[in-house]
Sequence to fold (186 residues):
Amino acid sequence: MAREWDVPIYAHPMEFPYLTGISEYPAPDVDVGGGLMSLASPLYPRGPVNLSDWLRELPADGGGISALAQLPGWQVLHTPGHSPGHVSFYRPDDRALIVGDAFCTTKPESFFEVALAQQPELHGPPSYFTSNWEHAGRSVQRLAELEPRIVFPGHGRPLAGEFVAQALHRLAEEFGPLAAAAKKVA
Fold:
């Protein structure tokens, strides 16, 4: 799409090695999280790709929050864990949060959950491709502090309502044991 439409691709600088053809994303850990999707994860593309012609650095400040002129009203938040340069987008006016893979609203390791059930509940990031569980936990905690009303994940359905902030706080509180359990499977 970038080539066809000649539009920029914005990314956090820590993602640049994967987006400039220098390195591929780390191999998935098929033993983490269980489920058919975890077993199939080695088949997923992980680069490297070279998007240098379109790649632009997201603006950043010392607090990890920045604004992008092309997205008025939205804040860019560095939310590492799933990947080193993972970002989320937050719009304070209506408490909308685009989380990417910081967390999911379906269990991404389960084929049944992903393909069929899609129960509206919060889960951690896809465990087979989460590079740093400690950072992922801090990112979930940071996102919970925003008290979002609506979330748009990379995996699962968008969720809206006052219960979303409560569910995200619960995920943040339970994240340590969830991460430890996911790593124990390995």
